[in-house]
Amino acid sequence: MREIKSQEITDRVAQKLIEINLKLATPLCNSLEESLNMEESSLGRELINQLLENARIAREQSIPICQDTGMVVAFVRIGEGVRIIGNGLEEAINQGVARGYREGNLRQSMVLDPIFERKNSGDNTPAILHTEVVPGEELTVEIAAKGGGSENMSQLKMMKPADGPEGIMDFVCEVVEEAGPNPCPPLIIGVGVGGSMEKAAVLAKKALFLPLDYEHPHSRLEAFSQDILAQVNKTGVGPLGLGGRTTALKVNLLTHPCHIASLPVAVNLNCHAARHGHIEF
Amino acid sequence: MIQLKAPLTSEELIDLRAGDRVSLSGTIFTARDAAHRRLTEAINDGQELPFSLEGSVIFYVGPTPAPPGRVVGSAGPTTSGRMDPYTPLLLENGVKGLIGKGKRSEMVKNALKKYRSVYFTATGGAGALLSQCIKGAETIAYEDLGPEAVHRLEVVNFPLIVANDTAGNDIFQEGKAKYQIR
To answer: Do residues A208 and A270 make contact, with C-beta atoms less than 8 angstroms apart?
Structure first.
């Protein structure tokens, strides 16, 4: 049995959340730079350059990339052979969120009662946690600061099996076009197909956590993801929705077996400031 | 680049067209969802408002807390569409400029025409860059709302693009149509 102190989890979650909010990941900066080559709109290129300049300022002056420092979403993999000493796992992560957002001067963006009072929780908790129990003694936390603007433009549709791949592609494009400028394109798009209603949504979120150079192990699904990306970039939405070629930088697709009657499809949008971190214990 | 100084008048806005680049200086006010609700209630109840709406510019933003030694943290625009239900009443009461990101409803676009006001878009997700143009910040109302409180900001050469003008043009529709491949 491997023992991990909850304090270590709290410390590293806090530190990682500050880091990802202040430093735009290098692969993302590279991808934005590459998009300058294919962007036909001069205004679009100028906006992408502004985003790169923004990332530089944030890094150099230690201020957040975006004022929406997000809600915290984490995918946790915990081995059956791991015992956490001190606080429970959820408490340890939430304490890390509270500390990171306080010490990093990050914005508190969570309200407790979503329907009536909508009172700010004051420490950006609770985090949204998805926990998977796995064999062995690993503990990994994939953590994201997810902006509200792009989350609001995400959609789920229970499609018909007859809709097929064309239907899925059309739906993704519909979501992107309806969203237009709102989710701050260039986007990263997570698509979850199959499972049940909630499984598709979780897969779509999980797909957003995959690296920008992720290639689906099944060549047919990899080709389909690239086809979707190409189609999305024909919509004309462009950088910040002001028109252009660079509507999305990447489409990641995850699938799961599903019922004979079903084809659940979830499309989770992420703005260009995709803030993800990986913590391994 | 067109230079403007807030507060604004309709005369200064009437010739602006969707797509024009504007550099804005002067005094502007922040308000997002919860503050809009309170401003609306205050107008409807005839209460005193935290700032004069006449000629005012409202920036939809909830900045991050100012780190020590800075006037403001990261401060980019939030999605404007959530403010649509409150916007026509504010325009009717003298607001002349709106700053945010994302598209507006037909009702807002019509109100912009009617009250000769303009909706500007600032670069979404560029809060660190935009914060460099904010030289002064003071919380003036609704402090209990935390990140949604109303601040008075002093801005210098704040970079904007006209999104919806007084003639009903829409840069998002125009831009998309230009680059769409059927």
So the answer is: yes
Query: What tens digit of pLDDT does each residue of B128-166 get?
Result: 999 999 999 999 999 999 889 999 999 999 999 999 999
Q: Does B157 touch chain A (CB under 8 A)?
A: no
Q: How many CB atoms lie within 10 A of CB A29?
A: 16
User: What's the gap in Å between the CA of B20 and the closest CA on chain A?
Assistant: 11
Residue B105: CB atoms within 10 Å: 15
Nearest to B35 by CA among B139, B150, B140: B150
Q: Assess B71–A contact: CB distance below 8 Å, yes or no.
A: no
Q: How many domains does chain B have?
A: 1
| Nearest neighbour of B101 by CB, restricted to A50, A109, A184 | A184
The tokens for A36 are 């300058």
Q: Which residues of A touch B147 (CB under 8 A)?
A: 107-109, 120
Domains defined for chain A, CATH in brackets: 2-20+65-146 (3.30.360), 149-273 (no CATH)
User: What angle is formed at CA A244 by the lines to CA A242 and CA A248, rounded to 5 degrees?
Assistant: 95
pLDDT higher than threshold 90 for residue B182? no
CA distance A78 to chain B (A): 33
